[in-house]
Amino acid sequence: MLKGRDLLTLIDYKPDEIKEIIELGIEVKKNPEKYCNALKHKTLAMLFMKTSTRTRISFEAGMTQLGGHAIYLDWRTTNLTRGRLEEEIRCIDRYVDIIMARVYKHEEIKAIAEAAEKPVINGLCNLFHPCQALADLMTIIEHKGNANVKIAYVGDGNNVCNSLMICGAKLGAEISIGVPKGYEPLERAVGEAKKYSEVSICNTAEEAVKDADVVYTDTWVSMGQEAETEKRLKIFPPFQLNMKLLKLAKPDALVMHCLPAHIGQEITADVIYSKNSVIFDQAENRMHVQKALMLKLLGKA
Fold first, then answer.
1. pTM of the model
2. Which of 42, 172, 200, 293 is deepest in the core (most CB within 10 A)?
């Protein structure tokens, strides 16, 4: 049972629990009318320290489609910037049924969850992006039939990489990560993934991508890392996802990116719009799998 749980990181979720959420996401996508009143009279609070396109719209539209209501709260226009976080969250918790927060530090999402009695969802922090990973694996399963594939990730070993690795490994995928030295994913995430599947960390993109079924990349400079932009733009070009690199993967390899993309940096235009690309399917699936997640956490599946 997932009712009443938080989703801060997929480290805390068993493979069967992850599979349940994704399977429900696929079902909700196929039969939206069946769930159109499932969260009637339920309210989602959405707290944003960071800017957002997909996270905000997918949660807000998803909650609306389930018959519920979502409240967007920009951190800067509330007293979250003035009062103590614990008191502010305890008040918000009294008004709503579920909370999603997009924050800078993992400690912040943990503090929100500790203060709230209602379920809390991590909409992104510096270490993890669990909702993105759920949508990613849903997309892979839709296109490949299952998750028993080789997923290659190239670029920065960031929050997206950490969650993708954990989620993929728990569902049976082989994981291959190609990153520059010093930019490897979180050791805790690597250790968790290795409990469930084969995980290799390479320092060349070519080695990581060879014979992959899925090739994934993300921005080289995440929000909060702007001061490192110049340095990173000198280090990461060998890890660009371009047609030359893609040809090392299987001919029918899926191309994935969580967006926003910086065309000409981590990915080229011909790749993002190639026949291999499922990038916009990923974006759409954020909404469907998050609908499933909210249904599960609120005991309305």
1. 0.97
2. 293
